[in-house]
Specification:
Layout (H helix, E strand, L loop, with lengths): L1 E2 L18 E3 L9 E5 L1 H6 L4 H4 L3 H6 L2 E2 L6 E3 L3 E3 L2 E3 L7 E8 L5 E7 L14 E2 H17 L5 E13 L3 E11 L5 H9 L3 H15 L10 H23 L1 E2 L21 E2 L23 H16 L7 H12 L2 H16 L9 H15 L3 H11 L5 H4 L6 H17 L3 H9 L9 H12 L4 H9 L31
Parallel strand pairs: 1-4
Antiparallel strand pairs: 2-5, 3-11, 6-7, 8-9, 9-12, 10-12, 11-12, 13-14
Helix pairs in contact: 4-16, 5-6, 5-8, 7-8, 7-9, 7-10, 8-9, 11-14, 12-15, 16-17
The protein binds adenosine monophosphate and magnesium ion.
Adenosine monophosphate binds next to loops.
């Protein structure tokens, strides 16, 4: 590995934390790097010059060369995986390239993922293969276009090396961009070792980075910080549910303090509405099923609160009371965000207490028939103008739906908003295009076989999920029955 001439204008801060927070370790060279994808608009947003970068892209985004001012490190963290605590995980196949200040003045991490072994690799080879790398690229960029906080994808390269899983597969490296890589599990790492000073340093660091307003709060700042994180996660998970997203592996090491969606392993979008939907092959108990996500979010936040508790008050009973009170605010915070989103989806501007019941009835009607989640809501956009055909066609027995439509219309009357405003509000909350599993799988299969065209088409389509895209109707259609039930596999 060699240093390149190019500077990324890194402005690293994590490196100033004590040595026990990370390991200084370089990416491991790969044989024959080749650039597969490069996100030029994102590069520009990060203050990078795509044209100057282009000749070096394969070398830099494989980790074979690193920018002149990069100082690669791997971060340590712990985590609860499927409820079981693992005291040391860490970046086992990722290296932080550095932090940049983007065009909007926001600090962003650049990280190689799949870049070789680190002191935290345990039994792993430190590598990733092309399928999951492309999957993360596609779905994270789709989430971003849907308006959901998420890490982004800057580049994907193949390594020219084989990765051994159940089969021999083509190796690849993803360059990921994140508001930070601080996780609930980062706090758990220090807390579980009894390193209170480490927890305090980490909390002050995270606060400075994500919630600087809290810094002036004296000793009350830690509680204020937790409240902010609870609200962000409530908002994030509400947005997942509003578009039918299932993260699939909500371990505490995969929950970001910044409130971004992170770690796209076995995630997938639901088709027919059923809160019990699970796609991940390793989630045999349905711990991370669609409808369990808010509950798991609160559970994870309780683990975070435990680590911060000693900072809340010197009296441990009082500290526990404050921690509980904050974590217990999650369901209300979640409901607030979710109902706000549902009002958008149903074209409602004003609030009425019965709105929650109206939503519940719709979801129950959908669940009875496993009606397609995305198409039902998109169909309601047309129905708001009196065209019920599209949404009714999704129900084999639309009688119950008709009853609900009548109640919704009565509610819209009371809302008394102009029909055009209502229609455009609904269209911006109800996507036409989501990364449907059968489309994603077909695109990945072709890409791994060397044909990037279907992937490119899908990626472009998902950049404008709320627009009708004439000629692309097939991408919005129901999945062919032969592709269900669908399973995802952890992206290792
Ligand atoms: P994940 O399931 O991707 O969130 O990863 C959980 C932990 O396993 C993290 O510490 C990863 O760095 C580590 N890990 C996953 N895959 C590999 C691999 N191929 N080599 C080394 N570590 C890995
Ligand atoms: Mg992870």
């Amino acid at each position: 590995m060699t240093r390149s001439e190019l500077s990324f204008h890194f402005d690293n801060t994590y490196h100033r934390l004590p040595e026990r927070f990370f390991a200084r370790v370089l990416p491991v060279r790969v044989k024959a790097p080749a650039l597969v994808l490069f996100n030029a608009p994102l590069a520009e947003e990060l203050g990078l010059d795509p044209e100057r970068l282009a000749p070096h892209a394969a070398e830099i985004f494989s980790g074979n060369r690193w920018p002149a001012d990069a100082d690669p490190i791997a971060l340590v963290y712990a985590g609860h995986q499927f409820g079981h605590f693992v005291p040391r995980l860490g970046d086992g196949r990722a290296h932080l390239m550095g932090e940049v200040i983007d065009r909007h003045g926001r600090r962003r991490d650049l990280q190689w993922k799949g870049s070789g072994q680190t002191p935290y690799s345990r039994q792993g080879d430190g590598r990733a293969w092309l399928g999951p790398v492309l999957r993360e690229y596609l779905i994270s960029e789709a989430m971003w276009a849907l308006g959901i906080p998420t890490t982004r994808s800057l580049a994907a390269v193949t390594t020219g090396e084989a990765v051994r899983r159940e089969r021999v597969l083509p190796g690849a490296v993803l360059t990921r961009v994140a508001a930070s890589h601080l996780r609930v599990g980062t706090f758990e790492y220090f807390a579980s070792r009894g390193d209170r000073e480490g927890v305090r340093l980490l909390a002050d660091y995270a606060m400075a980075r994500h919630d600087p307003e809290c810094l002036t709060g004296g000793e009350g700042r830690y509680l204020a910080f937790l409240q902010r994180i609870v609200d962000r996660q409530a908002g994030l998970i509400a947005r997942w549910l509003l578009v039918g997203f299932i993260h699939g592996v909500m371990n505490t090491d995969n929950m970001s303090i910044s409130g971004e969606t992170i770690d796209y392993g076995p995630c997938a979008f639901m088709n027919g509405y059923d809160p019990d939907t699970v796609f991940s092959s390793i989630d045999s108990w349905g711990r991370y099923a669609f409808g369990n996500q808010p509950g798991i979010g609160a559970w994870n936040l309780a683990r975070l609160a435990e680590t911060l508790m000693p900072l809340f008050a010197s009296d441990s009973k009082e500290a526990l009371r404050l921690a509980n009170e904050t974590v217990e605010s999650f369901p209300d915070r979640f409901l607030h965000h979710w109902m706000a989103g549902m009002r958008h989806k149903l074209g409602l501007f004003r609030e009425e207490p019965e709105d929650q019941e109206l939503v519940r009835e719709l979801l129950e009607t959908m669940q009875n028939e496993r009606a397609d989640y995305t198409l039902t809501f998109r169909g309601l956009c047309a129905a708001s103008g009196g065209e019920d055909g599209m949404v009714r066609a999704l129900f084999s027995d639309p009688v119950r739906l008709d009853g609900w439509l009548a109640r919704w219309r009565a509610r819209l009357e009371r809302d008394a908003s102009p029909p055009e405003a209502r229609f455009s509000r609904m269209r911006l909350a109800n996507p036409q295009f989501i990364p449907r599993n059968h489309l994603v799988e077909a695109a990945l299969e072709a890409a791994v076989a060397g044909d990037m065209q279907p992937f490119g088409t899908l990626l472009a389509l998902l950049q404008r999920p709320y627009d009708d895209q004439p000629g692309r109707e097939a991408y919005a259609a129901l999945p062919p029955p032969s592709t269900e039930p669908f399973q995802t596999f952890c992206g290792t």
